[in-house]
Amino acid sequence: MFVLLAAIHKSQAWFHGRVSRKETQRLIEKQGLVDGMFLIRESQQHAQCFVLSLCSKLKTKHYLVIPCEDDGRKYYTMDDGVTLFIDVLQLVEFHQINKGILPVCLKHPCVCVAL
């Protein structure tokens, strides 16, 4: 059951799997460089990590989402464990309401458009 919950982000429109940083920037630019436009992808440099890519003030910024363990439970954090999330979906939902460490709230999912 935990494996299913841990992978729930894979069905979300904002999740892009293993795309490069360059491709991410191209996708966000293509959809309008709007403040709050975001996507999440798997990190190509850090195993088990994700990257939250977010548009703010016409620039795309990238934030590493790191898995960590506390009392034998797995969590995700972007601020060295100050704020912990049980999965990537919870992290996104939190940041749609609260900026946290981000310059703006997550507002517009950058969706993968099939051509």
Describe the model.
This protein has a single domain (2-109), classed as SHC Adaptor Protein. A 5-stranded mixed beta sheet has the order 4-3-2-1-5. The longest helix has 10 residues, at 21-30. The protein has 3 helices and 5 strands, in the order ααββββαβ. It is globular and about 40 Å long. Helix content is 22%, strand content 28%. The protein is an alpha+beta fold and 115 residues long.
Low-confidence stretches: 1-5
Order of helices and strands: HHEEEEHE
Number of strands: 5
Rg, alpha carbons: 14 Å
CATH topology: SHC Adaptor Protein
The number of helical segments is 3
- Per CATH, the architecture is 2-Layer Sandwich
Largest sheet, in brief, is:
5 strands, mixed
Short synopsis of the structure:
With 115 residues, the protein is an alpha+beta fold. The chain has 3 helices and 5 strands.
Question: Which descriptors apply to this entry?
Answer:
115 residues, SHC Adaptor Protein, alpha+beta, 5-stranded mixed beta sheet, 22% helix
How are the SSEs placed, and which strands pair?
Blueprint: H1 2-6, H2 21-30, E1 37-42, E2 50-56, E3 59-70, E4 73-77, H3 88-97, E5 108-109
Parallel strand pairs: 1-5
Antiparallel strand pairs: 1-2, 2-3, 3-4
